[in-house]
């Protein structure tokens, strides 16, 4: 049993040699601080991403080429290039331009800070994906519901605000949750621009302790916990926004007599 | 049949004699370097290995009257390759550390690494902890410079750690860093470039007692002694100083 040897090697590494519990206790605060930074990155860019995605998606479904071409290119670029390239372009790329370095507040408070560079990149990146989700959802809102809204005499704007967007939001929720979890894992790239997120803190600790296995495992567990929290949160959101999907069908016999009749009549047809 | 057998035997004898003589006579030493640490070892436009380490290796071989093959090997695998006998020595700016001494043997040091502060030209920058308070300093992660920065100044300054030295240079040039701590000699090389020309060394060098040696296999005492002898000779006869001057206007020994 090969894997059992490996397992025992691992356990030995975990428990023997360099008093790992000491190191865990000593460096855990750094990792927790890193986890907090990661959480902030994901929540902020998740919210900014969806706010940015709505107008993008609305422009994207337009039939007017002048309206959809720019969002189309934006989405194409951000979905088609690696996140690492994007974060390097924003962090190391923009700083190459004299004019940006002399832009005063924009440089001093925002673009010179790795934290804001990461938030900007992640928001732009995730917005592209969410916009595509939204576009698909808007286009698959049942035709009948849109026609009903038209029949009620709602204006185009009202149709979107009252019917189409809320329906689309419910539809994208599971996929949006997925996207946030992908972003959580993508956020580890923030460590490449000196940010001490969970990954950055872990790598720093490892460069001091040489305990690769232990601290990467610990970081992995922390990412899992954050992911579990996000999954749970989205389950709650889904229950709230897609309550209609939870409604259980009562057996016919328990229905009110008149409804039973209607039901039978419908089925007979 | 008899004749055939005799021929075979003599043929075998001749070949084995030839084999023995080539390994005994031609004194070939295979030396590995990294090829990614300018100006100490790097690969030039034509694909050839160049740099201070390479020149030292060639000078040592000439001094020992040995024939040398110098090969490039990634840093991660450079010690395992030595132990697997893929080459006989490592001349790649390797620091002599107790961890490494457990698996390989080192010659006498052939240069000393020191750390230095780098900051923008034309600014007053004192490098004691009190004067640096509140500043942002960078270094490469998992290097001696990075450790020094965290351990000695971590309480006073904001420390930014980079994946590569080049990224740290980029941020220094972009003005995100007030200064950097780095191995002095590679940094000297960067200061000569266009991007680095706006920066200079600040304050005193930081001597961290970091000695650079040639690594050989632990049981290869003969080769270690030959290197030590040759190293002493090229220092005495001025060849070392001449190579040093090719790269740095100051002594790095």
UniProtKB/TrEMBL annotation, chain A:
The keyword Lyase does not apply. The keyword Transmembrane helix applies. Its main location: membrane. Keywords: Amino-acid transport, Cell inner membrane, Cell membrane, Membrane, Transmembrane, Transmembrane helix, Transport. GO terms for molecular function: transmembrane transporter activity. It holds the Pfam family BPD_transp_1. It is found in: Cell inner membrane; Cell membrane. It comes from the Bacteria. The chain crosses the membrane at residues 35-59, 66-93, 113-134, 168-195, 215-237. Residues 35-234 form the ABC transmembrane type-1 domain. It is a multi-pass membrane protein. GO terms for biological process: amino acid transport. InterPro entries: AA_ABC_transptr_permease_3TM (IPR010065), ArtM/GltK/GlnP/TcyL/YhdX-like (IPR043429), MetI-like (IPR000515), MetI-like_sf (IPR035906). GO terms for cellular component: ATP-binding cassette (ABC) transporter complex. NCBIfam families: HEQRo_perm_3TM. Belongs to the binding-protein-dependent transport system permease family. HisMQ subfamily. This is Arginine ABC transporter permease protein ArtM.
From TrEMBL, chain B:
Keywords: Signal. GO terms for cellular component: cell envelope. CDD domains: PBP2_mlr5654_like. The lineage of its organism: Bacteria, Pseudomonadati, Pseudomonadota, Gammaproteobacteria, Oceanospirillales. Residues 28-251 form the Solute-binding protein family 3/N-terminal domain. This is Polar amino acid transport system substrate-binding protein. PANTHER family: ARGININE-BINDING EXTRACELLULAR PROTEIN ARTP, MEMBRANE-BOUND LYTIC MUREIN TRANSGLYCOSYLASE F. Residues 1-26 form the signal peptide. Belongs to the bacterial solute-binding protein 3 family. InterPro entries: SBP_3_CS, Solute-binding_3/MltF_N. It is found in: Cell envelope.
């Amino acid at each position: 049993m090969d894997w059992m040897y490996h397992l025992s090697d691992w356990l030995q590494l975990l428990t023997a040699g360099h008093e790992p519990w000491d190191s865990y206790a000593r460096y855990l605060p750094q990792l927790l601080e890193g986890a907090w930074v990661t959480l902030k990155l994901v929540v902020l860019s998740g919210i900014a991403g969806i706010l940015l995605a709505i107008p993008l998606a609305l422009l994207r479904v337009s039939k007017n080429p002048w309206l959809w071409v720019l969002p189309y290119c934006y989405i194409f670029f951000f979905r088609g290039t690696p996140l690492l390239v994007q974060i390097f372009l924003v962090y190391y790329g923009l700083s190459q331009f004299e004019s940006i370095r002399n832009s005063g507040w924009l440089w001093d408070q925002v673009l010179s800070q790795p934290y804001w560079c990461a938030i900007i990149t992640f928001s732009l990146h995730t917005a592209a994906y969410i916009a595509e989700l939204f576009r698909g959802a808007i286009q698959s809102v049942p035709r009948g519901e849109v026609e009903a809204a038209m029949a009620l005499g709602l204006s185009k704007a009202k149709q979107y605000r009252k019917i189409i967007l809320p329906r689309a939001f419910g539809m994208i929720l599971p996929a949006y949750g997925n996207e946030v979890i992908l972003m959580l894992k993508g956020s580890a790239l923030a460590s490449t621009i000196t940010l001490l997120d969970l990954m950055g803190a872990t790598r720093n600790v490892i460069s001091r302790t040489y305990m690769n296995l232990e601290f990467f495992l610990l970081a992995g567990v922390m990412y899992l916990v954050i992911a579990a929290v996000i999954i749970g949160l989205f389950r709650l959101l889904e229950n709230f926004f897609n309550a209609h999907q939870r409604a259980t069908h009562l057996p016919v016999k328990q229905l009110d007599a008149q409804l039973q009749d209607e039901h039978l009549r419908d089925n007979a047809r | 049949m008899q004749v055939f057998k005799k021929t075979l035997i003599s043929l075998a004898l001749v070949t084995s004699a030839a084999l023995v003589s080539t390994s005994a006579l031609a004194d070939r030493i295979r030396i590995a370097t990294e090829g990614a640490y300018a100006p100490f070892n790097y690969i030039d436009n034509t694909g050839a290995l160049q740099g201070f380490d390479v020149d030292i290796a060639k000078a040592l071989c000439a001094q020992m009257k040995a024939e040398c093959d110098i090969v490039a090997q990634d840093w991660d695998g450079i010690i395992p390759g030595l132990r697997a006998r893929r080459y006989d020595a490592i001349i790649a700016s390797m620091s002599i550390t107790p961890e490494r001494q457990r698996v390989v043997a080192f010659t006498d040091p052939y240069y000393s690494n020191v750390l230095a502060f780098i900051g923008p030209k034309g600014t007053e920058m004192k490098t004691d902890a009190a004067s640096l308070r509140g500043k942002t300093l960078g270094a490469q992660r998992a290097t001696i410079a990075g450790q020094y920065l965290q351990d000695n100044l971590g309480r006073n300054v904001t420390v930014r750690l980079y994946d590569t030295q080049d990224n740290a240079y980029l941020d220094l040039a972009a003005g995100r860093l007030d200064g950097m701590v780095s191995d002095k000699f590679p940094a000297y090389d960067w200061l000569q470039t266009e991007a680095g020309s706006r920066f200079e060394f600040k304050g005193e060098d930081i001597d961290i007692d970091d000695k650079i040696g040639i690594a050989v296999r632990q049981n290869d005492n003969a080769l270690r002694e030959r290197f030590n002898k040759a190293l002493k000779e090229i220092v005495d006869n001025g060849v070392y100083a001449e190579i040093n001057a090719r790269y740095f206007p100051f002594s790095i020994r």
